[in-house]
Amino acid sequence: MVSPLGGQVWKDYEDMGPPWLKPMLRASYFTPCSVHGDSNKSECNMFCLDCMGNALCSYCLIHHGDHRVVQIRRSSYHNVVRVNEIQRYIDISCIQTYIINSAKIVFLNERPQPRPGKGVTNTCEICCRSLLDSFRFCSLGCKLGGMKRGDPDLTFTLRMKNSRDGGFHFHGGSESDESSTPKKIQKRHIFNVDGGERSCSSGDDTNINSISPSTPPIFNHHNARRRKGIPHRAPF
């Protein structure tokens, strides 16, 4: 299969990542859209990987129907993108990811930290941000900075990786918490009042309340308290 990229273009991709990466990192986000600024919710928090232009607002998406668009979010005044969106297009290995609001994210640009915390043994190779020992960079921009230094082990190119089932899939770094793979079905054992046991399979939206009520206990009418009859006066 012939690569759609020419020789020099492919070499540049290997060295510095896809052509849309730098424009995405440099774009200005969370500013009013220059076209739809008078509309509600016209904040620019999208970026089109195919057009590689300025940041987009939700009203601009009508012109990018078939394009690859990612949403930029913000955490502590820093721009982030969700892992399950960006790892489809680039390899984010060696970059530390974080979980914010139950979603795994990666930061776009460096976050300098001149004084690492006490006891920190590993920091970002570019901006000295404290990291876990298994990572080298704190953001996409810092990994790009490491590639500019000429590190041959770094790349943003997605690699084909042979899987155990004999097939191939792209290896793009960290796996998202929000993977489309369905979660394992769980079995729950419910005990009825009469001592019997039954099980049910449940997914994300199934809970105990959705199970039919258990069999009520048998009521013994012979032991029920009889109602008193009408009282009669004693004879004189």
Structural class per helix/strand content?
alpha+beta
Beta-strand level of the residues, as a percent range?
A: 15-25%
Radius of gyration: 30 Å
Low-pLDDT ranges? 174-219
The dominant shape is elongated
How would you characterize the largest beta sheet?
A: 5 strands, antiparallel
Number of strands: 9
- Rounded to the nearest angstrom, the distance between the terminal CA atoms is 118 Å
Q: What's the SSE pattern?
A: HHEEEHEEHEEEE
Order the strands across the largest sheet as they lie in space.
1-2-3-5-4
Pfam families: PLATZ
Protein name: Protein RGF1 INDUCIBLE TRANSCRIPTION FACTOR 1
InterPro entries: PLATZ (IPR006734)
Organism: Ziziphus jujuba
What labels describe this entry?
236 residues, alpha+beta, five-stranded antiparallel β-sheet, two-stranded antiparallel sheet, elongated
